[in-house]
């Protein structure tokens, strides 16, 4: 797809809100595909060791499903993989599938439900009449707590949701002129974020441990941190640039001083330690991979062509749109919606300048766990 075609697609989407969601889905899909092999390997291992536990009905949940096309992409992948494994073993019948789609209560579940008739039709058209039944339900609520009955899940899946905290950490008063952890943040800010993440991730593991059957699997992909000490490297430079943009615009600095993003990007050591300390799961696999900030930006019709880069401002704008898709609701709630268009317009310029000098990437982790 050329950049002209990509921009045309954006223009054809009627509202600004949907345009930024399209960009968000594009970049997240890149990360999901990079982690595909871990999901495939996990499903294969489940099938070989625990097929008897779901031979009649395979029950799974997608936590933080959002409302875009990536949600149904993941479900389709799981169904296809299980069916493929059944055929390879000459099993006459694949299990039925019960899928729960979870997100917060203000998620647009109606958009997901509107996509289901076409999704069901596509499943049936691509396979014979022997295709197993698939039942999909919405499940609103926070995954930092129980959502389903005990021993009711075979697979838990989540992509790009666990970096969100349940709340803004307490004790960030000294993080003035930053909106997240930055290299210039005082030590107590790093500790406050870390404590909140430890509480939330432990609650998440405890809740899933109660909901899953013994031997059930969990595959989680989220944005992480490449270094153990966050003061030594700015893995969240995009937030630093956004804070600088807000500094240029907000006349009442107190408003900025009281604002912080409820996001935490853990390092590998923190994830490993939390899983072992909580004790409900065995960590089978932990892999890391990079996704460039502008991985969704088409370059001369080829995302791998580094010799012909699109207009630098447009590149910055497309990256700004991705970040806008998940930061706008939080920022608008705190500062008001009147500054939003101007804010992200200015932000795009700062990003364009930064990207002309640097080639930054998001550090991602994918983990696979087994319920003990």
Number of helical stretches of at least 4 residues = 11
Largest sheet: 7 strands, mixed
Q: What spatial form do the alpha-carbon principal axes imply?
A: globular
Q: End-to-end span in angstroms?
A: 45 Å
Q: Could you explain how this protein is built, in words?
A:
Belongs to the methyltransferase superfamily. Type-7 methyltransferase family. Keywords: Magnesium, Metal-binding, Methyltransferase, Transferase. The chain is an alpha/beta fold and 372 residues long. The protein has a single domain (3-371), classed as Vaccinia Virus protein VP39 (Rossmann fold). Helices cover 47% and strands 17% of the residues. 37% of the residues are buried.
Which descriptors apply to this entry?
372 residues; alpha/beta; Rossmann fold; 7-stranded mixed beta sheet; 11 helices; 7 strands; 47% helix; globular
Offer a concise description of the structure.
This protein is an alpha/beta fold and 372 residues long. It has helices at 3-12, 16-34, 36-50, 70-88, 109-126, 187-211, 237-249, 253-257, 268-278, 312-335, 340-355, and strands at 57-63, 96-103, 134-140, 153-159, 212-223, 281-292, 361-371. The chain has one domain: Rossmann fold (3-Layer(aba) Sandwich).
């Amino acid at each position: 797809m050329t950049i002209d075609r990509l921009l045309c697609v954006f223009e054809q989407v009627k509202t600004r809100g949907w345009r930024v969601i399209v960009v968000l889905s594009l970049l997240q899909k890149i990360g999901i595909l990079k982690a595909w092999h871990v999901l495939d390997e996990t499903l294969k291992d489940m099938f070989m060791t625990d097929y008897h536990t779901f031979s009649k009905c395979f029950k799974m949940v997608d936590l933080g499903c959002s409302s875009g096309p990536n949600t149904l992409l993941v479900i389709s992948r799981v169904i296809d993989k299980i069916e493929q494994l059944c055929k390879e073993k000459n099993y006459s019948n694949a299990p039925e599938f019960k899928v729960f789609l979870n997100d917060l209560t203000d998620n647009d579940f109606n958009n997901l439900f509107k996509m289901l008739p076409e999704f069901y039709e596509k499943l049936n058209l691509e396979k014979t009449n022997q295709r197993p039944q698939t039942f999909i339900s919405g499940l609103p609520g926070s995954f930092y707590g129980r959502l389903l009955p005990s021993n009711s899940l075979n697979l838990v899946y989540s992509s790009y949701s666990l970096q969100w905290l349940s709340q803004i950490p307490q004790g960030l008063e000294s993080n003035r002129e930053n909106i997240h952890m930055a290299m210039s943040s005082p030590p107590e800010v790093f500790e406050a974020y870390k404590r909140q993440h430890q509480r939330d991730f432990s609650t998440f593991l405890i809740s899933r441990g109660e909901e899953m059957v013994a031997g059930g699997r969990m595959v989680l992909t989220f944005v992480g941190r490449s270094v153990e000490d966050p003061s030594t490297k700015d893995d969240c430079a995009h937030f630093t640039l956004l804070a600088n943009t807000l500094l240029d615009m907000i006349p009442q600095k107190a408003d900025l001083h009281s604002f912080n993003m409820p996001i935490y990007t853990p390092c590998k050591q923190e994830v490993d330690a939390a899983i072992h300390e909580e004790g409900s799961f065995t960590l089978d696999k932990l892999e890391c991979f990079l996704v460039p900030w502008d991985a969704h930006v088409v370059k001369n019709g080829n995302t791998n062509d580094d010799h012909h880069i699109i207009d630098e401002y447009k590149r910055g704008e497309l990256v700004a749109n991705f970040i806008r898709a998940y930061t706008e609701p939080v920022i608008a709630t705190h500062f008001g919606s009147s500054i939003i268009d101007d804010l992200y317009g200015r932000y795009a310029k700062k990003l364009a300048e930064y990207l002309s000098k640097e080639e930054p990437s998001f550090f991602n982790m994918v983990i696979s766990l087994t319920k003990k």
